């Protein structure tokens, strides 16, 4: 069989920045092992598979090594594929996922996603975390998905060169490291997820569902301009509304074609 494939850079306005994702529309989801093999072959941070469901779509996300319950940048990319290629001119789409319905709408400058927030709790610094990062965090928060570590400055954050094998042993899906921004951005971050086959994710919508409520408490505000300071880099506008978060960003198409399975 042959199926379309789109390769986009998400959370950016230019190619070769932001977070790359593959989006593959299908008539139906194939067997899990086939989807995983396709994602491994694509070898991008995320491959999104979408299937039409009435006027909506069902959506699943795979890294090169595992299926994940939520992915922001590949959802943004999927919305761009629906609105720009599958149904040109459409202004809103709902994706049904294991994390519930996710709505994406056009905005003046890109697309706005409506995601659930992921609250977290202050904890003692887990054994091995400081050694894994190479720096002692000021404080650490956690939920069932990730650790979040605050460091003293953006300079410290950008200089991190973590021990990925040690991060895998920490027992969470990943480690978010964050610092106060320099004024242009409210906060900056990086995200390390080697346990999911992604040593450093370039720009992570899912991480911001934890970052935004954390910084809301620290800064006393609900709208943020955030930057993920990976090598590729990417910007996200975040708006908190109760237990939901709106994340706004752009996408750029890089490749369009077909794959043979």
What's the SSE blueprint?
Elements lengths: L1 E9 L8 E8 L5 H11 L3 E8 L2 E7 L4 E2 L3 H15 L5 E6 L2 E7 L4 E6 L4 E3 L5 H5 L5 E4 L3 E5 L3 H6 L4 H5 L5 E7 L6 E7 L4 E4 L3 H15 L3 E6 L5 E8 L2 E6 L1 E10 L1
Parallel strand pairs: 2-3, 4-6, 11-12, 13-15
Antiparallel strand pairs: 1-2, 1-18, 3-4, 4-5, 6-7, 7-8, 8-17, 9-10, 10-11, 12-13, 13-14, 15-16, 16-17
Total domain modules: 2
SSE string: EEHEEEHEEEEHEEHHEEEHEEEE
CATH topology of the largest domain: Diaminopimelate Epimerase, Chain A, domain 1
Name of the CATH homologous superfamily of the largest domain: Diaminopimelate Epimerase, Chain A, domain 1
Global mean pLDDT: 97
Report the oligomer.
Answer: single chain
CATH class of the largest domain: Alpha Beta
Helical stretch tally: 6
**Spans of at least 5 consecutive residues with low confidence:** none
Portion of residues in beta strands equals 35-45%
CATH architecture of the largest domain: Roll
Helicity, as a percent range: 10-25%
> Rounded to an integer, what's the Rg over CA atoms?
18 Å
End-to-end distance, in Å?
5 Å
Shape: globular
By DSSP, the count of extended strands is 18
Major β-sheet, in short?
A: 18 strands, mixed
By helix and strand content, what is the structural category? alpha+beta
Please explain how this structure is put together.
A hairpin with a 5-residue loop joins strand 15 and strand 16. The chain is 22% helix and 43% strand. The chain folds into two domains: 128 residues, Diaminopimelate Epimerase, Chain A, domain 1, CATH 3.10.310; 122 residues, Diaminopimelate Epimerase, Chain A, domain 1 (Roll). It has an 18-stranded mixed beta sheet that branches. By secondary structure, it is an alpha+beta fold. The chain is globular.
